[in-house]
Design a protein that fits this description.
The chain has 359 residues and is an alpha/beta fold. 36% of the residues lie in helices and 28% in strands. The chain contains ten helices and 16 strands.
Length: 359
């Protein structure tokens, strides 16, 4: 039904995950050992200049295509099949209940009929897909079906980007689903298998920080706020008179004046931690919950010195930095020191790569 095999993903032969965000392109390729354990075969990233992608829209197609080609070359992968993701804002998702036991063709007809009620575009203009989640928790004899729809032009943008870079897009996922898939593995490794644990996941991007509260594979709460790592870059730019691009490069390289940590980094970490605390308070005031068991921080900004400790101090909840490659074996092309340093920014890319093995 979709332009690609699916918007939601099935099992596939060798392919890698490619996460295209506003600030970078990240690639992850996973394998599986004989014991069934994941193996991180390769990972790589390539920065994008500001404005090349804005609000999930590719504004500089040729430049982003070249960045994709560079990240593929840098990774050393021989695979050309790729799983990519749509931004959450570009996809409409809806869970519906349908009778169990319907044939595939009957399901498709029912889904199209239901989709007409929820999608504010003509079905001719959208790529539509669905998957059966499982038996309905509330209605005996029914199954829960997840519908996903995105405008064809948005889907074709991502598909065209892959093809222009010489790749074959086989799955188009949703960014938030990919990060949740990667998290489900980490939550399962928590004490008691993470059962009944409320996990507050903060994904700190360049311009946006999203809070997702997860419990037993269910998304209880989802909220974005306009705050991210680019604010630190702007502070560096103002403090030292660098251009934004210079400030970003120096931030990544750690090539900053002696007073940087005290004059710029510490105030930024304070502000970030206050934003995290404020987001948790919104969650507590708008739901019956008044605590979380774990605060998880993802994204490159989460690795900044003092962030984890300051968030713990300000919120009262122990926080930890997410490593989506935790408990994975490392392939011969992967350096452990780089994994430790960069892993938190690869959560979505890791979830995309996992689509190869997860139904």
């Amino acid at each position: 039904m979709s332009v690609l095999d699916t918007l939601l993903g099935r099992k596939h032969p060798p392919m890698f995950g490619l996460d295209v965000s506003s600030s970078s392109v990240k690639l992850v390729e996973l394998g599986r050992g004989a014991d069934g354990e994941y193996v991180l075969e390769r990972f790589a990233s390539e920065p994008l200049e500001r404005g090349w992608i804005a609000d999930g829209q590719i504004e500089k197609f040729d430049e982003v295509t070249e960045a994709v080609k560079r990240v593929v070359a840098k990774s050393g992968t021989k695979t050309r099949q790729v799983v990519m993701a749509m931004p959450q804002a570009a996809v409409i998702t809806k869970k519906i209940m349908l009778p169990a036991g319907l044939r595939e063709e009957e399901l498709e007809l029912q889904v199209e009929s239901e989709a007409n009620q929820y999608i504010p575009f003509s079905l001719d203009e959208v790529s539509l897909d669905f998957c059966v989640v499982g038996p309905s928790p509330t209605s005996v004899g029914d199954v829960e079906v997840l519908i996903a729809a995105s405008r064809k032009d948005k889907v074709q943008d991502r598909q065209g980007l892959a093809e222009a870079a010489g790749l074959k897009p086989v799955v188009l996922d949703i960014e938030s689903h990919a990060s949740r898939l990667a998290m489900s593995r980490l939550i399962a490794a928590l004490p008691g298998g993470g059962h009944d644990a409320l996990v507050a996941l903060f994904e700190i991007g360049a311009d946006t920080t999203s809070l997702k509260v997860l419990k037993d594979d269910e998304l209880l709460y989802d909220r974005d706020q306009a705050f991210g790592g680019s604010q630190l870059t702007q502070m560096i730019s103002r403090q030292y008179g660098f251009s934004f691009e210079e400030a970003e490069a120096k931030k990544i390289a750690g090539d900053l004046p002696e007073d940087y940590e005290q004059a710029v980094l510490a105030p930024f970490v304070d502000t970030l931690s206050q934003e995290v605390g404020r987001a948790l308070q919104y969650f507590f005031t708008s739901t019956p919950h008044h605590k979380v068991h774990y605060v998880m921080l993802a994204g490159g900004t989460a690795t900044l010195s003092g962030v984890k400790e300051r968030v713990t101090d300000l919120t009262g909840f122990a926080s930890q930095v997410v490593n989506p490659f935790e408990h994975m074996k490392l392939g011969s092309a992967v350096r452990e020191s780089r994994v430790r340093r960069e892993a938190p920014s690869y959560l979505t890319a890791c979830g995309l790569a996992m689509r190869r093995f997860v139904q």
